[in-house]
Amino acid sequence: MEITFDGNKVITAHLNGHEIRTDQPVEGGGSNSAPTPFELFLASLGTCAGIFIKGFCDNRGLSTDGIKLIQNMQYDPESGLPTDITIDIQVPASFPERYVPALIHVAELCKVKRTMDNPPAFEVKSTII
Question: Does residue 6 belong to any structural domain of this protein?
């Protein structure tokens, strides 16, 4: 993955032929043209859970019509970091109730969540090129 600085507060990640742009809100000096890096991080949790739910439903021929995930965060007022993250899997009344516990289980298998549960070691370094 390569990260580039693309003018003003726009920072772009280039990976596997994709470009993922981030920006800052206007009050942070950006133009609000894309999510902030932290918003993108939080969105990766919900979308990762979503892809696991989608795969579960697809494998069983279950429709995902009407299913939505609502993600809420509680923050520490001093650090601004999340203290609690809740993903509510909302299913329509027509969804087979017997599969609801399995939806919760597969959402918890999300690789992003598992990485947060077992954080990797981080190293930040600099190289003169």
Answer: no
Q: State what percent of residues in the chain have pLDDT above 90.
A: 100
Q: Is 14 contained in some domain?
A: no
Which residues pair with residue 15 across a beta bridge? 18
- pTM of structure: 0.89
Domain that holds residue 64: 35-117
In a domain, 102, yes or no: yes
Residues 67-105 have pLDDT tens digits of 999 999 999 999 999 999 999 999 999 999 999 999 999
Domains in the chain: how many in total? 1
CA contacts within 13 A on the Cβ side of 128: 0
87, 105 Cβ separation under 8 angstroms? no
